Input
Amino acid sequence: MAPSFCASLLLSLMLAILLVCPTNARLSMKVTEDVLKEICSPHEDPPFCLQALKSDPRTPFVDLVGLTNISIHLADVVMNKTFAMIGPLVNETADPKLKVQYDLCSQLYDSNVAAIESAKNAWKAGNYLIIIDMAEGCLTDCSDCEDAISIAASSPLAPKNKEVSRYCETMLLVSRRTSGD
Output
């Protein structure tokens, strides 16, 4: 009777662990090609999302938590490059109205760079909902910058801003998947 009781107790304990930790089990599984496609399917540009995530050599070896970190890193790199580009545009444009709009974009990007740092800290703390908030804010700021520079017939900032928006959307979709949202 004792071995049967021990086996029953062990089985009950294992079942309890599986019921309590399904999220952790889901998060710790390596990301497959199918998961990447599911994550990217609602993206404005699904091929961009897939290519961006696959561009990092770590992607085939990470779980959802690692993929979230990759998406933050990708957004961080392109955001900082674009932010660095805006300063000279503000100083070099001859159009006073466009100068004001570039300055607005500069302020928005300054805020986004700070938000990316918050997203990195949230990732370290496992708070994926904060990352979602940061990504949504980034998308709003990119949209506001796009609206601001639309007064120009063409702007070198427009395609870069769109690229940042796409990376922020990728970060949003990955972090939503990670959080179970």
